TrEMBL record:
Membrane-crossing segments per the record: 33-54, 99-120, 132-153, 263-282
Tree of life domain: Bacteria
Organism whose genome encodes this protein: Actinoallomurus oryzae
Entry's localization field: Cell membrane
Transit peptide as UniProt keyword: no
Record's keyword annotation contains Membrane: yes
PROSITE patterns xref list: ABC_TM1
First-listed, main subcellular location of the protein, grouped into a coarse class: membrane
Pfam families in the cross-refs: BPD_transp_1 (PF00528), OppC_N (PF12911)
Cited InterPro entries: BP-dependent_transpt_permease, MetI-like, MetI-like_sf, OppC_N
Coiled coil: none
Protein name, entry field: ABC transporter permease
Record key words, sorted: Cell membrane, Membrane, Transmembrane, Transmembrane helix, Transport
Membrane topology value: Multi-pass membrane protein
Length: 295
């Protein structure tokens, strides 16, 4: 009897079967904003992967065309050293998206197990973990990231570390909240009565139920990390010139805003559209994965 009780929730939790996946996709594609976000994210990923191979060398200088406006030879214009802005924006997309995705991935790898353990062991582990989380949350996200980057030093690796540590509290809290709700469900109680160990219960029965929420949390965290990377690079605490990132390009454009405003327009538009795309994608995934959104 216990075996039948335990096996009931597994198809819904251990992984999405083809029918479930099709149902989620149907709900997702019915939302124009979600589809727009998916197209934007796919476009930026394609730009980051393919762009540097099909555009000019971002470090190549055209001394005959410094601060040239957009034209047939340079679609997005050139900077003060004659470097092609299209190539630099495309390469900057790779750097900025790499920082955003890797920082969220690292935060998930560390934060999900910590939140899982804290939510499951409420009496002993949870108070200690949540007090540490409260200490970190006392600092605003960007202030904490700036402090971490200033301590570690300017580099892409240190930017990823600073942004991931800054996002840890949110991921731990979300994971813990999901665990607190899921551990009270009947099939978890049945697993406990059947003699399943704590590790099996957490990773076999509790964690799969929180997967959809964690996917949405990761999708929403990426644009925050992209803005964080741009801010750190703008302040000189992130990627260093001559490596282009969207934040570095904005820094270089400051002194030419009157003479060549396109130097600031293109990286600013890229940051705005990428964050918009990931936010729309996250909202669409949340609605599509939430069974309560079915009418």
């Amino acid at each position: 009897m216990a075996d039948q009780t335990l096996s009931a929730p597994l198809p819904a939790l251990a992984g999405a079967p083809p029918g479930r996946a099709r149902q989620v996709w149907r709900r997702f594609r019915r939302r124009p904003a979600a589809m727009a976000g998916l197209i934007l994210v796919a476009g930026f990923l394609a730009l980051a992967v393919i762009g540097p191979f099909v555009t000019a060398d971002p470090a190549a200088q055209d001394y005959s065309a410094p601060l040239a406006p957009p034209s047939g030879g340079h679609l997005l214009g050139t900077d003060d050293l004659g470097r092609d802005m299209l190539a630099r924006v495309a390469y900057g997309a790779r750097v900025s998206l790499e920082a955003g995705v890797l920082s969220v991935l690292l935060a998930m790898v560390v934060g999900v197990p910590v939140g899982l353990v804290a939510g499951y062991y409420r009496r002993f582990v949870d108070p200690v973990v949540m007090r540490l989380v409260d200490v970190v949350l006392a600092f605003p996200f960007l202030i904490f990231a700036v402090g971490m980057a200033a301590i570690l030093g300017p580099s892409l690796r240190n930017v990823v570390i600073a942004l991931s540590v800054s996002q840890l509290p949110g991921i731990i809290r979300v994971t813990r909240g999901e665990v607190l709700a899921l551990r009270e469900l009947d099939y978890v109680a049945a697993a406990v009565a059947d003699g399943a160990g704590d590790g099996r219960i957490m990773f076999r029965y509790v964690l799969p139920g929180a997967t959809s929420t964690l996917i949405v949390q990761a999708t929403v965290g990426i644009p925050t990390a992209i803005i964080g990377e741009a801010t750190l690079s703008f302040l000189g605490l992130g990627v260093q010139p001559p490596t282009p990132s969207w934040g570095v390009l904005l820094t270089a454009a400051q002194q030419f805003l009157d003479q060549a405003p396109w130097l600031a327009i293109w990286p600013g538009v890229m940051i705005a559209l990428s964050t918009l795309g990931f936010n729309l994608l996250g909202d669409g995934l949340r609605d599509a994965l939430d069974p309560r959104s079915v009418r």
